[in-house]
Amino acid sequence: MARKVSTRRKLIMSAIAWTLGILIFFPILWTFITSFKTEAEAVASPPSFLFFHWTTENYAQVQERSDYFLHFMNSVVVSLGSTFLGLLIAIPAAWAMAFSPTKRTKDVLMWMLSTKMMPPVGALIPIYLIFRDGGLLDTRTGLVIVLTLINLPIIVWMLYTYFKEIPGEILEAARMDGASLPKEIVYVLTPMAVPGIASTLLLNIILSWNEAFWTLNLSASKAAPLTAFIASYSSPEGLFYAKLSAASTMAIAPILIMGWFSQKQLVRGLTFGAVK
Amino acid sequence: MTLKTILLGAVSALAFSGLASAETLTIATVNNGDMIRMQKLTDDFKAKNPGIDLEWVTLEENVLRQRVTTDIATKSGQYDIMTIGTYEVPIWAKQGWLLPLDKLGANYDQADLLPAIKDAVSVDGKLYAAPFYGESAMIMYRKDLFEKAGLTMPENPKWDFIADAARKITDKGSETYGICLRGKAGWGENMAFITALANSFGGRWFDESWKAQFDQPEWKQALSFYVNLMKDAGPPGASSNGFNENLALFQTGKCGMWIDATVAASFVSNPKESKVADKVGYALFPTSGDLTNHGNWLWAWNLGIPAGTKKAEAAQKFISWATDKAYTELVASKEGWANVPPGTRTSLYTNAEYQKAAPFAAMTQKAMTAANTAKPTVKPVPYTGGQFVAIPEFQGIGTAVGQQFSAALAGQMTVDQALQGAQQLTSREMAKAGYPKK
Lengths: 276, 438
Fold this sequence. Notes:
The structure holds 2 protein chains of 2 kinds.
Chain A: H1 7-34, H2 39-42, H3 57-65, H4 68-99, H5 105-114, H6 124-133, H7 140-164, H8 168-176, H9 181-192, H10 194-210, H11 213-218, H12 226-231, H13 241-261, H14 263-270
Chain B: H1 2-14, E1 24-30, H2 33-40, H3 42-48, E2 53-59, H4 61-73, E3 81-85, H5 88-95, H6 115-120, E4 122-123, E5 126-127, E6 130-135, E7 137-142, H7 143-148, H8 159-169, E8 177-180, H9 190-200, H10 217-233, H11 243-251, E9 255-261, H12 264-268, E10 280-284, E11 299-304, H13 312-323, H14 325-335, H15 346-349, H16 352-357, H17 361-370, H18 394-410, H19 415-432
Parallel strand pairs in B: 1-2, 1-3, 8-9
Antiparallel strand pairs in B: 3-11, 4-5, 6-11, 7-9, 7-10
Helix pairs in contact in B: 18-19
């Protein structure tokens, strides 16, 4: 039964929603605007919002100085690679925990999550040494491996909650019809869990894209993704805010656009199973 | 099926790990104007040294420091040349992490390096890194505001004069603040300034037996002076201002004085970036009372070679190219004298063309000559380093103490509480690190 909502209430709610939305989006908008200013205008006080001399000089300079395409490709390969590798491992793992739990399942899940509670720098030196000896420093393969490991707990947890919503009886029925385990996962479970898997996938691509600790510390020049590209424009001695803004805009644009187009899927997946 | 295709695509893309030729030097560097300019001019090096290719990794200072420290400590050899500060050079050289620079070539003029800088990057008389650009600290002030207030800045001012002048110039109604100083917590941010300030007040971090000295009257005097002055004549929110924030304030005409790294002079006097470019005067870092200590601020960005590299010879060739006199002339011919990297060579300061192009040259040289990092304080100390203490523990301790002082500036605690906190945490960390060492 639909509740009657007064126009006044609707207006207030809309106003609050818009204010919050703009508040959250404002830093990105400001970065975007700053990227078209000169360095002097970027630090001017009071700052000008729209009425300044717009210039694309910063983009030209960033383009001239760095190989944007190389960093972009590295980001794409690393975030897609780690997400797909993660899903490949996490789908069977989440299946096992959701449909065939033991009395230790809860502990295992908690233990996996606990790996996210340690500050990453605590593991930097051991991982760095392993990467050095394995020849993985500054390689895309190395970054894919480490990001897979970092995000695996989140992927498993998300998939586990989605899988829990699927009635086990359907899988049982498939088994009684003679489906083998791989077939059961690929043809019965996965199609039903598509919204959940899709949102896990999207969220993990975003997380991997933005990951800045490991990607910065384990790469140098060849495998450096867009996080390193941004870091190369920040300076403690010198005001390069406009160039930094241009570099940031270029780095976040692809993931922002992807998020925009897939937001329906993302929201649907995140609220999947919340209301029955 | 689509998943498989994408996976295959990802895997094949992984195979592109780059085909490096035998002599590609990987150079890690900070992002500042002089370094970016060097990257642009490397065609000259490649023309003179065919067969050596260069690959740049430019990073923000703090990221770079963490990155290269991890690499050199694990001897991973990701970089052939590293850009490191005067803080790292002596510590790393003693650890055996850096190669001595003994093959810079017969023509490389070592005697021309500024003595203070040369000492800062040498251990036992051997050069372990070559300075690319250097800086000390000085006062930058607004000549027009001083004139309006009927003040004349002496070349060698005392802190009392600075405090009076700052209070006189301050006009909070028109957002003009007498003095802008660093307040953002960090060993390389507020602690650089406050350590130099304390040096000039006769304070020291440690006594000869490595006992922390924050309970001594000199520190209380210095820190109270700083906090009171900033309260009366500083900009609002000063506890989050670092070099860049103050630069923005000064350039937009909001500060009467700014005491900071000499390298700032080239920014504030550049009419393209600064509104007050033609109104800036310079003076030495102030002294206190009868003391003659100017704080002894000295910093240089240097090029060093990690011991793990297999391309030491080519790396020395590059360092020799980037830090010798010929490079200065190359920059001058392409970008003008105002843009040459400052603060490393005596010959630059006797060059008439440079002095004409850079109005701050004379004062910069005086400031750099006045700095003595071997004897930074009035009372004797067991350490070297001017605005920092050259021990590995300093990064952590300096930042923790910086947080206390930043809180005192923000009014969250009193000067006494901040000093007490600093004394406690420094004593604890030093004991943990096993000081006094032999």
